[in-house]
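Working notes for the structural subgroup meeting. M.R. asked for a predicted model of this chain before we commit to crystallization trials. I am recording the input and output together here so anyone reviewing the notebook later can reproduce the run.

Input as submitted:
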Amino acid sequence: MLFKLKVAYYLIALKFNKNKYMDNISALQIKRWNKMQSVLKKSKFYEILVSQKTPLEAYPIVNKAIFMNKFDEINTCGIKLDIAYKTALKAEKTRDFTPMINKISLGLSTGTSGNRGIFLASENERAKWVAAILDRVIGFSLKKRSIAFFLRANSNLYSSVKSTILRFEYFDLLESLASHIKRLNALQPNILVAQPSMLLLLAEEKEARRLNINPDKIIGVAEILYQEDRSYLEGIFQQKIHQVYQCTEGFLASTCEEGNLHFNEDFLIIEKKYLNDEKSRFHPIITDLSRTSQPVVRYELNDIIKEKKNCKCGNKWTAIESIEGRSDDIIKLKNIAGKEIHLFPDYFRRAIVESSEDIRSYTLICISDYEFELFIEGSQEHYEQAKNSILEFLKSVDIHHIIIKQIKSIKVDKGNKLRRIRNERSKAN
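Returned structure, recorded in token form:
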């Protein structure tokens, strides 16, 4: 009962602050940053900076490697990384995600950017997260509803959504598609939450009339929702596909009524590390003003964010045109003059999808300075169209030496994230 009261309190606070500070969000951010100082005092990593009254812009920028290497010093709960990792790993192996350490929930990220990350959440933080999800994603309602939530790994954080009027059903990505279809048909969920790659499989099952569900809301999580995939899904399910941008570092953004992601700037400070001269793409540097167990201060993500200006919904918080992938997937190739050209994943995506309106599923993997592997679902003609379109694009930037080889299937392990454009040269070398 106490937990539900906390959720209700934070939900009311979220709505109140959003309305009060919508046009002056920096005032709320300053207020919350000042309040954060009492939390940061408890972190060995940050306590000196607090005592010196260091301004936020002078705090060190951290990344995933630093965040994990300094796990013991950063967290305020006295939890050691080796114990946290063993507990989380055991939960993954046994598929029992209930264990906690000192009443702190643990989670383990997929590790697609290198090392796997551990995240911590206290009861208060879980209540704040549930309130934010109710406010920004699921929507508050007194009507009984069921949620089908597809995850690689469950967590006390996610199951906190469950209540007498909200039935939460966890679907393990490692289970078979056939078992998912059977459970979904029995559950008839009001809300479907899954990775875009899983949503695509479910859409195919719906097309084949083996899946017979009509959820009120569908939300893509954990992976990039490419425009061509969104169009296909919206055609099959006959509704707008929403998104949540969330990772180990927190609940970052959700979609507005126009379908565009906006950063949650009422509890996040977003700094932008621009990646091009036009200042259209950036890495977000995140400071989460709600995290207390494991402070997230000036954490640089390597996601490539393409910024959207002037969203029609009227929300002035930073909007996202698209999440184009990770900086690891920017492909750097030399042109005929020997100049290194930086090629963003979206350049290749456009070359492929614009080569034929019939192409839907594809992957392109750069495996060396001279060689790519290309998968195109469809006919050989579709493959040739996509291949020629990529080569034409490369020629337009004076790159002429690339060989593209055809592969017959998408290379992705079950339970891992689908990345359609990948740079794997370091693995190949």
